[in-house]
Structures are given as structure tokens and as C-alpha cells.
């Protein structure tokens, strides 16, 4: 799926502001409103744009503690454990990583008491997990909400 320069410009503008109008986008990339709409529809159909969403500042929304976990899992339990953890509302993202059946997980909770509760009741109780390592974020300098093409 090749992207031309106009598609890249459209995507870069949409990552800055997903609510920008077709008219404004058309001005920025030098196309008509109809051409911009058609290109965005094509990008959606091709699976390049998965969805439009809002980025919420977790701290301002009451999730004061952000932590990353490296979770080692028994190989035969990996998918089951990942799906179980992914269903938890405190889990912001979860990825299978290279290494010995490792999951990388980002968790957002209200406070350290909630983090302790999550670890003890939601994480350590999951069958198949063999090791957990955690890191708490002290300060955020940059957060991905898309990437520049």
C-alpha cells in the first residue's frame, strides 16, 4: 500500500487535528474538498486509517499513575493471558514482544493504592504469568498519538 506525498500530508494533518474539516484540509494540501474526502475514504478502506478518536490526557482525567509492565508468560498461555489482561479497563495497551513469551503492558490508574490493587488482584492472580517487572512513569515528555510520515 503505497502512500503518495498528498496522502502523507493528509495523514500528518489528521494526526495534528482529527477534527479538521475537509475544506481546511483541502487548503493545506492543495486539493478540492471532494478530492480530500475521496482520499480519506480510500485511506480508511485500505486500512491505513483505522479510526478517528480523541486523545485524553490521563492525568487530567483522574488517572494519576501510569506504569509499564514486562510480563513473562508460559508460552502455551500467552494468548489467553494477553486477552484476559486486554479486557481490563486499566490496561491502556498491551503488546506481545520478542523474548521469552513477554507481554509489554501500559496501565493507567487513579493512584498508587489502585496500582497496588491492580498488581495484587488483577495481575498476580492470572494463571500462566511467570514474572512481572514494572516501571512507574515519573514525567511524560512525549506521548505518541500518531506518527509523522
TrEMBL record:
InterPro entries: AsnC-type_HTH_dom, Dimeric_a/b-barrel, Tscrpt_reg_AsnC-like, Tscrpt_reg_AsnC/Lrp_C, Tscrpt_reg_HTH_AsnC-type_CS, WH-like_DNA-bd_sf, WH_DNA-bd_sf. GO terms for cellular component: cytosol. Gene3D superfamilies: 3.30.70.920, Winged helix-like DNA-binding domain superfamily/Winged helix DNA-binding domain (1.10.10.10). One of its GO terms (biological process) is response to amino acid. Signal peptide: none annotated. GO terms for molecular function: sequence-specific DNA binding. This is Transcriptional regulator. It comes from Caldibacillus thermoamylovorans. The lineage of its organism: Bacteria, Bacillati, Bacillota, Bacilli, Bacillales.
Amino acid at each position: 500500500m503505497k502512500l503518495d506525498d498528498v496522502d502523507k500530508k493528509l495523514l500528518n494533518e489528521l494526526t495534528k487535528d482529527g477534527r479538521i474539516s475537509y475544506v481546511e484540509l483541502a487548503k493545506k494540501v492543495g486539493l478540492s474538498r471532494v478530492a480530500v474526502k475521496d482520499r480519506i475514504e480510500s485511506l480508511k478502506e485500505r486500512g491505513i486509517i483505522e479510526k478517528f478518536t480523541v486523545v485524553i490526557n490521563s492525568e487530567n482525567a483522574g488517572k494519576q499513575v501510569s506504569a509499564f509492565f514486562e510480563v513473562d508468560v508460559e508460552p502455551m498461555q500467552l494468548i489467553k493471558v494477553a486477552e484476559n489482561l486486554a479486557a481490563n479497563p486499566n490496561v491502556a495497551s498491551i503488546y506481545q514482544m520478542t523474548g521469552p513469551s513477554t507481554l509489554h503492558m501500559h496501565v493507567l490508574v487513579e493512584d498508587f493504592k489502585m496500582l497496588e490493587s491492580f498488581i495484587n488482584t488483577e495481575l498476580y492472580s492470572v494463571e500462566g504469568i511467570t514474572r512481572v517487572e514494572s516501571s512507574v512513569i515519573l514525567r511524560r515528555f512525549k506521548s505518541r498519538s500518531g506518527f509523522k510520515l
